[in-house]
Amino acid sequence: MRRFLCCLVMLLGAVAGTAQAAPPKTVLVLGDSLSAAHNIPVESGWVHLLGDRLAKMEPGWTVVNASISGETSLSGRNRLPALLEKYHPAVLVIELGANDGLRGLPLAQLRDNLTAMVAAAQQAKARVLLLGIELPVNYGPQYRDGLRAVYADVAKDKKAALLPFLLDGVALKPGLMQEDGLHPVASAQPQVLDNVWKALTPLLH
User: Catalytic residue numbers?
Assistant: First the structure.
């Protein structure tokens, strides 16, 4: 009996050690300049702040920021397979479409690219969060409404999580946007993170 108990204790200890040694899960962020800390210190960007917050969680999480300024949905779609293979994320955050919209690219193309990215991530066993974006009013209501509908429709069709507007509570507030009117200043990044966090948290559990 004593020998059995000793073996049981050793086994439980080994299991606990294995659990403690388990690598942290990964959140992969695939975005454009809004996620790449455009014109602000990298450590001030919302993705870096997300990494700091997730590092304090148990079990641990890590963040990989694969965002590139100027990225379109097509270029993100082309890069995604290699990123999924390299990082095996548990969660993929897609923040793309702003540059498609600013260039007036066909919304059907954006829909197709987002759908393909969500499908690829889900096939790789990753949960997906889509981050929507709004365009300036000079793009007209038809195009702006169509852009909103793309995110909503893709999220619904693919059963992905959705944050309708990444810059909610930021974009229209004086002093929170850079001179270009498109990118938040450093002091606004915690608010951007709070927006993301509300939609991301359910995917972490």
Answer: 33, 180, 183
Structure confidence at residue 16 (pLDDT): 47
Strands 61-65, 25-31: pairing kind = parallel
pTM above 0.70, yes or no: yes
Tally of helices (H runs) and strands (E runs) in the chain: 7, 5
Residue with tokens 């004593």: 2
What are the beta bridge partners of residue 47? Answer: none
Reported as type and span, the H/E element at residue 125 is none
CA distance 43 to 29: 15
**Beta pairing partners, 131:** 163
CB atoms inside a 10 Å sphere around CB 138: 6
- Give the pLDDT band of residue 20 (cuts 50, 70, 90): low
- Contacts (Cβ under 8 Å, ≥6 apart) of 204: 27, 54, 57, 61, 91
CA-to-CA separations, 59 to 26, 32, 62, 65, in angstroms, rounded: 11, 29, 10, 20
